[in-house]
């Protein structure tokens, strides 16, 4: 989308956090991580998605040929591996690769009906205003939907790299045990969000220290 950037994404989050502080409620944000996102795109699933959004069958077949009929090799430490064919993934560093990836995951936010979400390429965070444990349960429901979407689309979440940040200035915040596939997510004291380090009180001291000291 034109005229959108990481700054736009962060400004949207800032608006949500400040609104939470002003209205004296909590905003829980779940930061997700997709395992080897660009390399895991299934060609068959991608073709179905392209046809669904209106790509002509000939164009879809041409793109399938472009993606699948590639020979790769690995060069490391002055040693070259044997050639092999790829079975998934869009080429990074190309013009088409990022576009095809975005088209593949574009529908992911539709699975988060009870919550808001902000997406920048493969960087996805979902959030919800938390006034009670019932609100947190709805956010957990969306997290379950997100996990199921990943299974269906063969694009799995890296649970170890997913985390929670509860933005609040309350002395007694609401704690909820969010989990993915039975694995509890860590409650973070700070996160790096698109290159900006932030904490639960939305204080940028850590970010300034990292950049300026």
TrEMBL record:
Keywords, in A-Z order: Membrane, Transmembrane, Transmembrane helix
Transmembrane stretches, start-end: 55-76, 96-121
Organism superkingdom: Eukaryota
Record-linked Pfam families: RVT_1
Record-level GO BP terms: DNA biosynthetic process
Domain Reverse transcriptase: 1-180
Protein name (database record): Reverse transcriptase domain-containing protein
Annotated organism of origin: Araneus ventricosus (Orbweaver spider)
